[in-house]
Design a protein that fits this description.
alpha+beta; globular; six-stranded mixed sheet; 19 strands
Length: 465
Amino acid sequence: MSNLEQKLKSAGSTVDMLRNSKIGAYVYPVVAPEFTNWRDEQRAWRESAVLFDQSHHMAELKVEGPDAEKLLSYLAINSFKNFTPGKAKHFVPVTPEGYVIGDVIMFRESETEFNLVGRAPTVSWVQYHAETGDYDVKLTEDPRSPSRPQGKPVLRRHYRFQVQGPNAPAILEKLNGGPVPEIKFFNMDWINVAGKKVRALRHGMAGVPGLELYGPYEDYDVIRDAIIAAGEEHGLVAVGSRAYATNTLESGWIPSPLPAIYTGESMKGYREWLSDKSYEATGAIGGSYISENIEDYYLTPWDLGYGIYVKFDHDFIGREALEKMADGPHRRKVTFEWNPDDVIAAFATMFQEGDNAKFMDLPLSNYASSSYDRIMKDGKMVGLSMFAGYSYNERRMLSLGTVDADIKEGDVLTLVWGEPDGGSGKTTVEPSKQIEIRVRVSAVPYSRDARESYVDSWRSRKSAA
């Protein structure tokens, strides 16, 4: 067995294979779990400033050459109009049937150089087309750092830091030795850090837009030390891997939808190209939603809030399918605010005789690569909860997900937490019982700061432009 297609045939049921994957918990590698404690680290991005170390958990793929834009445009639902060097874009590819494969941030370094940063599914999809298509491009891959390096040295192409929070401007100005250039959202410029010229992207993940800084990995220690020193008088807190992933609960990005690549003759060549050890072959599905048909787990761009990106001004894989979907009813992305009494009752089962509710790990309560918990109204499923955790800033359990078009903000629905029949074969699931939790449909982003700060972005816009 050497590829995903063979593994799927051997498994028989794709859903069973993924629901019982033994991959274990998702690991944010290398970065310490906590530098202080995850509560104070969450609080700091709202009240002072934080340093996010993004150097290790994402894959990078450099695409360069005369046909780089041609290739990437053909794979993206996004328009490349006015996408000039010095800008970044949220790059989203779909299958020929119009279902999302994944997403990455795409940096345009020059007319012929692009850098893609994010999770493996999108990076692999670009690699496949670059290698099998007629494109004059060169690829430089830098996979994410190993989850368990076992003491071996870890080297990357780039360090990648974000400085975020209300005090971020003062810290960045101190680092730069003077006023920082006015950089528009998702645009890039240069600043000075410790005598080095550093590339800076205007970005925001924690409510207040800050800068993402990146450069050669050999400068990692120098740049990090300079940021920590400049932030000391401004309450800068280094954020560990436990708290890092939860910032999206407040800012509104669903990190890991299931790549929609497991079915269809059009995707067979890709499945044969993917190894049986790939992300797609080893990932896990978790949650209370069960369907025998893996296609029921696929998501459209509108389901994930990416409908605003769909532009029919260029030819791309999936265009015809999305044209047919465009005017139909769409699910939309929302935040679910969990009822505190129901959450407390779930935790109480850990101290009672009998079966407990599936443990809600804090601050991040996901236990699979892709989560799918049923959202119910009057006995009917009306949505899915897909990324759950706890916000110390809001003193609430929150999750991100998608709901039917007729569900309104403020509606109180029911989330079914835990897996049926006592659980699955995943190593992250203990024997447990399902419970119901009331959830209130809320805005996305949930944080008011994030909603007001993310100007003209997928996080805040509700309809296609």
